[in-house]
Structure formats: C-alpha cells, structure tokens
TrEMBL record:
It is an enzyme of class 3 (hydrolase). Converts adenosine 3'-phosphate 5'-phosphosulfate (PAPS) to adenosine 5'-phosphosulfate (APS) and 3'(2')-phosphoadenosine 5'-phosphate (PAP) to AMP. Keywords: Hydrolase, Magnesium, Metal-binding. Belongs to the inositol monophosphatase superfamily. This is 3'(2'),5'-bisphosphate nucleotidase. The keyword Oxidoreductase does not apply. It catalyses: 3'-phosphoadenylyl sulfate + H2O = adenosine 5'-phosphosulfate + phosphate; adenosine 2',5'-bisphosphate + H2O = AMP + phosphate; adenosine 3',5'-bisphosphate + H2O = AMP + phosphate. InterPro entries: DPNP (IPR006239), Inositol_monoP_metal-BS (IPR020583), Inositol_monoP_superfamily (IPR051090), Inositol_monophosphatase-like (IPR000760), Inositol_monophosphatase_CS (IPR020550). It comes from the Eukaryota. Mg(2+) binds at residues 71, 136, 138-139, 298.
Amino acid sequence: MASSDYAHELHIAQLAVQRAAILTQRVQATTSKGTLSKSDHSPVTIGDFGAQALIIAALRHNFHSDQIVAEEEADDLRNNESLREKVWSYVKETKLDDRESEEKLGSGLKDVDDMLNVIDLGKSKGGRSGRVWTLDPIDGTKGFLRMGQYALALALMVDGDVKVGVLGCPNLPVDDTAPLDADIGKDQTSGGEGKGVLEAAVLGQGAFSRPLTTGALAKERKISMSKVEKVTDATFCESVEAAHSNHGDQADIAKALGITRESVRMDSQAKYASIARGAGEIYLRLPVSKTYVEKIWDHAAGDLIVREAGGMVTDVNGKRIDFGTGRTLTENKGFVAAPSQLHATILSAVQKVLGAKSDWEIVEKQTL
Ligand SMILES: Nc1ncnc2c1ncn2[C@@H]1O[C@H](COP(=O)(O)O)[C@@H](O)[C@H]1OP(=O)(O)O
Ligand SMILES: [Mg+2]
Ligand SMILES: [Mg+2]
Ligand SMILES: [Mg+2]
C-alpha cells in the first residue's frame, strides 16, 4: 500500500492484529479456553482478553492520546485470579518472530495489573470528534469456540469517519481466489496450512490482503468485490447464529431476487472479509430482535474494507452506517453489504420483503 496518509496507523494496526492472532490461534488449539459467560450471556475467553490486552498495548505505545472503544473489560479478570494468570501467561509469551516489527509495538506490558489497566483503556465513549480506535479482539467468539470462523477487528475513526480498517481472519483461506464454500463456517483446525488472511483498507486507498502469518514480510495484493452483473448469479452469506440475523427474512429476500444458491453461514466479520475479495457477493444482517443495538466494533473495519474493495454497505433504509454515535450504532438497523453494481437491486428487495411485514417500518428510501 502506498505510504501516505495513515501509513503509520495502518502498519501498527496490521502488526498488532497479526501478533494478537498468534495468541488467539494458540488458545483456539487448546481444550481449555477459559470461557466465561458475560452479563448478557455471551461468551468471553482467554483469547478475547489476551488479544485485547496485546492490541491496546500496541496502540498505547504508538498513539498515546487516542481514544479506544473495545468490547471487553477487565472486571471478570480482577475477580478471578486463576483466569487472570492464564491470560497473563499467554500475553507475556506472545511476540512477533520479526524483532524489528515486535519493537515497533512497544516494550510490552509490565505485569498483570498493567495488563488489566490496558484492557480497561477500551472503555472510551467514542463519538463524532477526534481519533477513536475501535477493537473487537475476537469477533464471533461463538465461532471461535466451535472451531469455526472468527476475526480480530480493528479500525481507526477520525471525527466519526472510518479511515483505517484491519481484519485478521485466522481460519479463512489465505488464497484470495478460493471460492466461498459451504464448509467454510464449519469446524476447522485452528490456523494451519493454507489458512489465515489479513485484510486492510485506508479510506481512498483501496483494500488489500496478505497472509496473516507472514505479515510484514509478505507482499500485499489488491482485493476487489465480485464483478457479477446478474443478481441471480450471486451467493449471499449470513451469520451462523439465528439470534444474530434473521435467516427467514434473508431467505425471503434471496428468493425475491431469484437467488437459488444456498446461503453460506459463517461467524464474524469474516463475512465482510470474504465478499471484499469476491468470495461470495452479498452479506445480509437483518435484525431479529427489536431491542438489540449493534456495536461499532462489529462493523467498522468490515464496512471500510468492503467499500474500498468496490462495495456498498448501508442499513435497510439505504443509509450509510454512522460510526459517530458512540459505542453503539443507534442510527442504523439491519445491514446490507454488496458490490456497488448490485446494491440498489438488493436494497429494493430488502425493503419490499420487510415492508410486507406488519411489524416493520422502513423509515424512508434514501438515494446515496
Ligand atoms: N441479538 C443479536 N443480534 C445481532 N448481533 C448480536 C446479537 N447478540 C450478539 N451479537 C453480536 O453479533 C456478533 C457475531 O455476529 P455473527 O453471528 O455474524 O458472527 C458478535 O459480536 C455478537 O456480539 P458479542 O460479541 O457480544 O457476542
Ligand atoms: Mg463482535
Ligand atoms: Mg468480540
Ligand atoms: Mg463478544
């Protein structure tokens, strides 16, 4: 990628994600992942805490005054000595092979207390002003636990706009031309031969991929969304979890569009990462619950990478995603990501199907 605006931020974000992925892959390969259930009943593991600590430590060292909005917090570790020590043992041992790159990420965490404090640096409010990093250390923890897809997601926003996005996907094929295959979301071995991709984008500079494992030493490749012109030739992907997106509505929309291929289900922002390199075309995430509000860390990196690869991401009303609203995406409901040439057709099918449901309100159709 050209060295210009945000080159340093991009470089550090890529290295930080790459290093944290070494930790998550080691944790995924073990049987004791230290799973806890959070107050909202979602799982968190040694991998989530450890990756958050390592990534924020690198951000603290390089961009000391930036805000950080990250998913996890340290309270559950403060109350659990044995888990805290396990997380610390992974964190202190995880380093990049390349010494020069490791040094760029800083001198590391001093002790367990420093690690807990660093995890809690992710409690910022976010919002529409200044530099805000947003981090999901393991997006798709359920996928991580079922040995499926997961992603490490990191993005930088400036005044509410996403400028840099990085997605590390340890279980996606390293090969950008690998097709989107129905087995992709199923059980995998952790990492391994032929797996692991690091995607990145800077606003206005395109989207790129490189192997996750070789990182800085590997050549980057430009990636782009599918050029398919006929929506009937498209493949769509969606969450594995039926509680996270509405499989029924999504099937109705595919039918309305004349799509006959079965959807491909996988966890996490690996869905954005797949369509951004033309493995499949469409990612639909229509709400199941009327009360769940999506989080900025679940979409910021994927949104930028897809748009920089030639795609469009909107909510069901056709509005761009507004990341300046704080930790949650209060202005958007339902996500539609697709190649630009297909997006309008898909959005109109989404609105038709949802509009026919008695309990749905489409606010207004907006032209982008
Ligand atoms: N009810 C919900 N609706 C939509 N997304 C949800 C819901 N509950 C949790 N999530 C989030 O969806 C993301 C995973 O999406 P996917 O199913 O596409 O892999 C996770 O970040 C998860 O949050 P959390 O990390 O708190 O579990
Ligand atoms: Mg997530
Ligand atoms: Mg997460
Ligand atoms: Mg979570």
